[in-house]
Prior knowledge:
Layout lengths: L1 E2 L11 E3 L10 H4 L4 H22 L2 E2 L2 E2 H6 L4 H5 L5 H4 L9 E3 L2 E3 L2 H21 L1 H23 L6 E2 L2 H14 L4 E4 L6 E2 H20 L7 H17 L42 H18 L6 H14 L2
Antiparallel strand pairs: 1-7, 2-8, 3-4, 5-6, 8-9
Helix pairs in contact: 2-6, 6-7, 6-8, 6-11, 7-8, 7-10, 8-9, 8-10, 9-10, 11-12
Amino acid sequence: MGLLSKPKTSLLDFLMLYDRSYMRQPSEPVAQNTTIVTKLLMVTIGVFVLQNLLNVLFPVYGGRNYFLTEWFALSGLQFQELKVWTVLSYGFLHSSATSSFLFIPIPFAHLIFNMLCLYLIGRHVERIIGKTHFLYFYLGSILIGGLLYLLFHFGDAQPVIGASAGVAGIVSFFCLSQPNKKLLIIPIPVPIKSLWVFWGMLTISLFGLYSELSNTTNIAHSSHLGGIFAAVLFYRFVYNGSGSFFNTSRSRPSVELPEWVKRKKKVEPTITYKVNRSSRDELQREVDRILDKINTSGFGSLNADEKNTLDQAKDILSK
Length: 319
């Protein structure tokens, strides 16, 4: 996320993953469906192309497109003009400036790093929480990032653009829900646990906020913090996975009733459905069903038997 004047890219935007067997690219039935991550990539890149085309049609002052800046970038003054849509639209605009990464000039670095990170991390998060939750969560991260930026810059005319708040939310949620997953942060050659990456992002953003408020940086760290905060809220109150970052089971004092007062609960018979996997074709159909379920409801919706089926299928079907 960068202020519109001189956007830069944080090293934490450039991440790569080591995959588990059940987190890899899905087989053909699921892959045929366009993911939300793919659609977001297409829309954001399409908007970026439109930005550069509009530079020909509309006046450009100091590297800024006047039309896009006035109507779709986010700033305190424009929000006061009731351009409330800018708290979302800013997340789909990116600077076309060239930035340096490891002393190498990279054109369109603002867009490239954000979209690369969205693809590398976002496709895994989408499988965990499902398409609908992923879309709402991504847009919610951009929204909260924009609101937090306005909190610190409500009277400023300096606009902000970029998807970094949404990306920060996606990466933070991944780190919280998969705390022991290994991440490789370029240029650090040693894989780091996801939870440590989360704390690193939070620390950098907090220290960066001080630089932002003292006008010694052109990176909107406040919006990054908004994305991180959105991830914490989503993980804590929406996500139903088995993450251990927060202790959701708080001990509460209770009063035990006498046995003769307690109402006996009716024991419902447990029905266990087993799939006949006597042939490779039947196993393949069961795997396809599970992959369709992941695509619709996310990986967190699978039960233990379905996860075991995926692990077994990897060994059997690969023979």
